[in-house]
Design a protein that fits this description.
Blueprint (H helix, E strand, L loop, with lengths): L2 H4 L3 H6 L5 H17 L8 H12 L1 H10 L5 H9 L16 H7 L3 H25 L6 H24 L11 H14 L2 H26 L7 E9 L5 E2 L6 E3 L4 E10 L4 E14 L5 E12 L2 E2 L4 E8 L5 E12 L13 E10 L1
Parallel strand pairs: 3-10
Antiparallel strand pairs: 1-2, 1-4, 4-8, 5-6, 5-7, 5-9, 9-10
Length: about 350
Amino acid sequence: MSLEAADETLRDRLGRPGLPVDLLAVTGYAVVASALLFQPSVYATPLAVALGLPLLFFAPGYALVSALFPGATPDDADARASDALAAPAGRGGVAPRTPTAVHQHGLSVVERAALGFGVSLALLPVLGVALALSPWSIDPWPVLLSVSAIAVGCSAVGGVRRLRRPPDGRFSLPVRAWVGRLRRSLRRGSALDSALTVGLAVAVVLSVAAMGYAVAAPAPGESHTDVSLLTRDATGELVAEDYPRTFERGASEPLVVEVTNHEGEPTDYSVVAELQRVRQADDGSPRVVEDQRLATFTPTVDAGETWRTTHEVTPTMTGEGLRLTYLVYEGRAPEDPDASEAYRRVHVWVDVVE
């Protein structure tokens, strides 16, 4: 090992054109964010939103742009060659940003970042169509895995394409130029100027953090619980349609009850299934004149998780236009359940014949 290699600093290693620091960061972020988002304690929390937004709206687009344009701009190459802060004088300034120049020389850091957001937004609808045509549904987990796979795969392709270019023609983050610019600004200015520069940088970081928290943190009342009634179609898939409308007294028909917890913490629920005979009150509101409790379920559902059970509905009360309702309560259900007091409720209208 030469003395020069031994004395190489971290800044020098990060600034080498052969090391795709940005693509390594995108890959690492995609892997770590996906692993964390799969944890039940993270899903449906502000941390999940903060991790998921860059993964959805930046990482795949940036990786794809890097795979398509592995080259460095002329200014990047000049900056690395001379370790200067800008292109040397007499080079004619910034090269024209024509399609031919972009294809030959690549994109700048700012252009890559901007296109990263734009291309990510364009990829999401295409990904949604692809999932809709695939055997998988458009659920959080397939979307998360697909986006992560695109980010990691395109980063790998981009890294290989960069390595195939000459060292002075590869794009890399201008870490040395950034550090040099910061050092020069601190060295040339007075103590007050340096303090103001550092203070401004800290203020920008805090502002970005505050904006991220405002986006990620749920607003009051945003936490909620979803309840659904489902049936199985001919293929065995769960669907919210084709409910049984006519029951025979004493005979059973299956309905699937589903409760999804978006409260941000594990929650104890009580789900009461009732068959109700409803009449119209004098003020026009529905009034329950008779009811039959069919079942009570008491699941505990983790944050971001879904509880599901098949309820064999066996009515004994007969009549037309009966309301089969499921009342969801947080904690224990009251002795005499009332739809107006339930946290969530869902129902279907059925007929029960002899």
